[in-house]
Model the fold of this input.
Amino acid sequence: MINQTNCPLCKSELKKVHTTKDFLVTGENFDIMECPNCRLRLTSPFPDKDAMGRYYESDEYISHADKSKNVFDLVYNLVRSTMLGRKRNLVEKAVGKKIGSILDIGCGTGHFVNTMRENGWKVSGVEVSSKAGELMNNQFGVSIISPDEWLNSHEKYDVITCWHSLEHVHEPWIYLEKIRATLNHDGVLIVALPNYESTDAGKYGADWAAYDTPRHLYHFTPSSLEKIMFANEFLIDEIHRMPFDAFYISILSARHTGRSAISGMWNGFISWFSALLNKEKCSSLIYVMK
Done:
């Protein structure tokens, strides 16, 4: 375990804002630390890279699950199907192409990669989980590469996407440097991240499910992400809402507090509505960068 005491971006001393826990697997406690300067938040301590795998060992880790076991999973899968089409449209609009090459970092079981392939794109995926890669290959016949293989490759892409994956990476600036080097001229980086300034994050505090410690190592806002991206020579061109995340995250957060799914749905609705009035209150945001 590695305690986080200073901001990796601006070197300021971090301040503790919450103590939360791993609600999914181990029940271990972790702190949420914040930089008073750039407002980046970090989980502390960081599990060692070699030890991270055990924190993903859960049948409930829904990004790696495809079986519909209950109503919640059915709704999740329905929403995912809807969002896949929206993501494809967003990608094609952002890059100005209907066909091209795309790399998805943290591709999970490959639903987005498969959607892009079915619509004519040349696809590649990076995934750390061998279990997810096996599921992806069995279901879609698409092979993935490991992060180390990608970091040592020379392939170039029109689009690189990180759908809720950059927050899992121990050293995201290494990924950003590689992404910058492997994007084609006029290429686009698209990143989706939870937003700890959202209405639902304010409601649930330390029990907010999108902290998801220790799987999420970093926690962002639009302003803190802008500083990180600018330091790595990216500019945010567009920001889009992920409207369904408020409901999903609020239901999980309500479960953490011992409250009902109905309570979570109601708070999700409040968060969703507030994001209509102020985009930066949205539970999760998509950033288009060049």
Q: What stands out?
A: DSSP finds nine helices and ten strands in the chain. The radius of gyration is 18 Å. The first helix runs from residue 71 to 95.
